[in-house]
Amino acid sequence: MALIVDKALGVHQYALSMRMERSRILASNLANVDTPGYLSRDFDFKASLQRVARELDGHHSGLPAPSLDASRDLKYRVPMQPSEDGNTAELGVEQAQFAANAMDFQTSLTFLNMKISGLRKAIDG
Fold it and tell me: InterPro entries, per this entry (predicted)?
């Protein structure tokens, strides 16, 4: 049964988890915007989601479940305007990325809710 629900929800449950992890990373960047020597990090959500989708296709074929280890996808962000203290976190950039990720999180949550309500309708008849 779990495999059927997992297959019905598709990549949306993983996208939501990845959005939460990205929020944590961006919040860390925002918290350290004034920390000398702090190197801001982020990951390419699209590339990470494509990797998880490929792993998910393999999982339904009998391979292990997809890995959501964000640390393997983390990259250092190149600043638009380097600071003298070596900090690469830029307040405006981090705020914009955090806000965009929050909107994308809401979108992922909406898709997941739509999938669940569709499953509920199918079960109820």
Answer: Flag_bb_rod_N, Flagellar_basal_body_rod_CS, FlgB
